[in-house]
Amino acid sequence: MFDKKAARLRRSKKTRAHIRFLGVHRLTVNRTPKHIYAQIISPNGGEVIAQASTLDGSLRSGATGNADAATSVGQMIAERAKAAGITKVAFDRSGFKYHGRVKALAEAARENGLEF
Question: Which end of the chain is less crowded, N or C, counting CB atoms within 10 A of the terminal residue's CB?
């Protein structure tokens, strides 16, 4: 039987293995129907350096499950990464298609100074 979540997690394994081989910081994205989350994880995978999501107080007042909210999260994660001294990351979309909210978050992070 085909399981959609299992297929997405299987696709994400290859990307994570490649990023681990590169040894760079990882910008990982997770999305649910209501929210979108972004984290910057250290190269060893043991420490979250910066995080942003639609659960933050400043973003929670408006709509949280659309591309505009994802753009705001992308801007916020880029600002927090620069504050932590990180400018170059590898983008880990966690097996999600590079489309819609994931694409909006990535483009906003690029426009605000993150390189990937």
Answer: N
Q: Rounded to an integer, what distance in angstroms lies between the CA atom of residue 49 and that of residue 102? A: 20
Q: What is the mean pLDDT of the chain?
A: 93
Instruction: Report d(CA 50, CA 37) in Å as an integer.
Output: 11
Looking at residue 109, its amino acid is A
Tell me which DSSP letter residue 30 carries.
Answer: E
> Taking 90 as the threshold, does the pLDDT of residue 59 lie above it?
no
- Beta strand pairing status for 90-92 and 26-31? parallel
Does domain 4-112 fall under CATH 3.30.420.100? My reply is yes
Q: Is 63's pLDDT higher than 90?
A: no
* Per-residue burial over 77-86, b = 16 or more CB atoms within 10 Å of its CB, e = otherwise: bbbbbeeeeb
Helix axes 101-111, 67-83, angle to 10 degrees: 40
Q: Which residue has the tokens 């290859």?
A: 14
